[in-house]
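Hi R.,

Here's the chain you asked about this morning:
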Amino acid sequence: MDYELIYKIINIGVLPAWLLLALAPRARVTTALVHSGIYPLAYGMLYTVLLVWAMVFGAGAEGGNMSTAAGVSVIFSHPHGVLLGWTHYLVFDLFIGAWIVRDGARQGMAHWKLVPILFLSLMFGPVGLMLYFLLRKISTSAGLSSSEG
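And here is the predicted structure, written out as C-alpha cells:
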C-alpha cells in the first residue's frame, strides 16, 4: 500500500469542498457536493475500510490501543494509523466547515466574515469552530446581519 499516495489523494480530495464553501457557498454544486453529505459518506467509507483493515487484518502498529496516550502514540507511529487519524480529522473538519456556512447563513452573517474562520477550521479545526462561536455570539448580541458591518 502506498501510504503517501493515499495521503496526498485524501488531502487534495477535500480541497474542492473547502473552496466551494469559501467561494460559492450557495451554489448548486456546493449544495450537491458538500452540503449533501457526499464527502462524509465517501471519506467515512474510506475510514471504515482502513479501520477494518487495521482491526481485522492487522494493518498498523503492533501494540496500539486507545486506552492510554502511549497506546494512541503507537497507533500513530505507523502510516496506517496516520491515514486513519488524518481521514478522521478531514471528514470532521469539513463537516464543521459546512455547518458553519449553513449556520452563518441562518444567523444572517455576512459570508466574508466566515471565510477566515473556514480557513482556520481547515487548518486548525477546533480553533476555527471556537472563533465561529465567538463571532456568532458577538454578531447575534450586537444584532449584526449581512446588511450591517
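One quick note: DSSP finds six helices and no strands in the chain.

Cheers,
M.
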